[in-house]
Design brief:
Length: 418
């Protein structure tokens, strides 16, 4: 299936594509080439994104070689766009690639040297990013053409991929600590525009009922296994009603210092892997919060109880993150890590509920086979509808699925997150 550039955005013209291609070729010594032809096609499977749609742009150059690009635009379906609030999420991602990423990259090159190979900011090259609230889009380097692949959505990342992801988060967070320490005014100005995109009470009308519906899905799956235990009682108090549940999740993102720029959606589908190398993608939920925003998302959504046990337990995973963080901070020229181990554990207990809140949605989503993922563009119209009506999840009845939910509830309760 082929599309026009305007399918991605009304403002994505052939002149813009020419600019993008020249940006992409600038570092290759082939800037004298021009576009012979191009084709726009789907770039991702169903179930890999809600707020935006990904396209692959295949460009044939004047010498016969091919350049592939990734275009990301807002849904054309207005019901989907307004129901999922695509505009603020695109605005955040454009802000990240146009302002935050260049700032962090500049700091790293200054502190670690221009020739550094193992960057602490492994992200795709962004050749174009614009936001006007209606026609937002971004164009990236195609990482798949470089051999990067997504971890399996259902079985999850391998051990090697989990380790790479964990280390990547630690080094990424180290950049924030370094900038905050070495250039505090610059850092304060950079994080000031970052706002909470999801777990904020002002968005209750969008998300509270949806999350409570997911809570009910979990409750039906675990109530027999946890019957008569304090785990079930604590879980039920967390979601006594939809307001209580959403208020608790909003409280989980309270700002505890020291804080960093977070990826915000650190589960495995937002990372691409090639051997031990990893690339971070999709910064639509970028946050300014404690490192636990990312780390708790990783633990709750990218590990199973068996995997945590094999790693030496949850605290062993947190310690590995902390050791990599301290090493990265030292490489950036800081005499000591601004985050102590005691502070990290305090943040884990205080902010870790955000990771659990994320897995209310992400774990059921990760258990759905690709062919069972619904078509989010099926609804016609121009106005938003309740999110819980647009999205549907099947009951979780398999024993292994129920066990995973039970294990996650126990993990959160054991650390007194609720």
């Amino acid at each position: 299936m082929a599309f026009a550039l305007s399918t991605i955005s009304k403002l994505f013209t052939e002149d813009v594509l020419n600019e993008v291609v020249q940006n992409a070729l600038r570092s290759t010594g082939k800037s004298d080439l021009h576009i012979a032809s191009y084709q726009v096609e789907p770039g991702a499977d169903k179930g890999t994104g809600y707020m935006g749609i990904v396209y692959r742009i295949r460009v044939t150059l004047s010498d016969g070689s091919e350049l592939t690009l990734i275009g990301k635009g807002m849904p054309q379906n207005m019901v989907r766009r307004k129901t999922f609030r695509s505009e603020p999420f695109f605005r955040k991602e454009v802000m990240f690639f146009n302002h935050l990423a260049p700032m962090l990259r500049k700091l790293e090159l200054k502190q670690r040297g221009e020739g550094v190979k193992d960057t602490f900011l492994p992200i795709s090259e962004c050749y174009y990013a614009m936001s006007d609230g209606e026609n937002d889009f971004l164009v990236f380097q195609d990482l798949k053409s470089l051999g990067y692949e997504m971890a399996d959505r259902i079985s999850g990342p391998t051990q090697a991929q989990r380790n790479s992801l964990l280390h990547t988060l630690a080094r990424f967070h180290a950049l924030s600590f370094a900038l905050q320490t070495l250039q505090p005014e610059t850092f304060s100005e950079a994080v000031a525009p970052i706002y909470e995109p999801w777990f904020a009470r002002e968005f209750s009308s969008f998300y509270a009922c949806y999350l409570y519906k997911l809570f009910g899905l979990w409750h039906r799956a675990v109530r027999d296994q946890l019957a008569g235990t304090h785990y079930l009682g604590r879980f039920e108090r967390l979601g006594a009603n939809q307001k209580v549940l959403f208020d608790n999740l909003c409280d989980s993102v309270r700002l505890l210092q020291p804080a960093v720029i977070n990826h915000g959606d650190a589960w495995s589908t937002n990372f691409l892997f090639k051997g031990h190398q990893v690339m971070m993608i999709d910064f639509q939920l970028v946050r300014y919060c404690s490192p636990m925003t990312d780390l708790s998302m990783f633990v709750f959504n990218c590990t199973t109880e068996e995997q945590r046990a094999a790693a030496g337990g949850t605290e062993a995973i947190l310690k590995e993150y902390y050791q990599v963080l301290c090493g990265a901070v030292a490489q950036l020229g800081l005499p000591e890590c601004p985050l102590s181990w005691q502070q990290l554990m305090e943040q884990w207990c205080a902010n870790g509920l955000l990771g659990f809140g994320g897995c209310l949605e992400l774990v059921p989503l990760s258990l759905v086979e690709s062919e069972d993922v619904q078509d989010l563009d099926r609804v016609e119209g121009n106005e938003p509808i309740p999110l819980d009506e647009l999205t549907q999840f099947s009951e979780l009845t398999k024993p292994e699925h129920k066990k995973r939910l039970v294990d996650l509830i126990r993990l959160a309760v054991d650390y007194n997150m609720f």
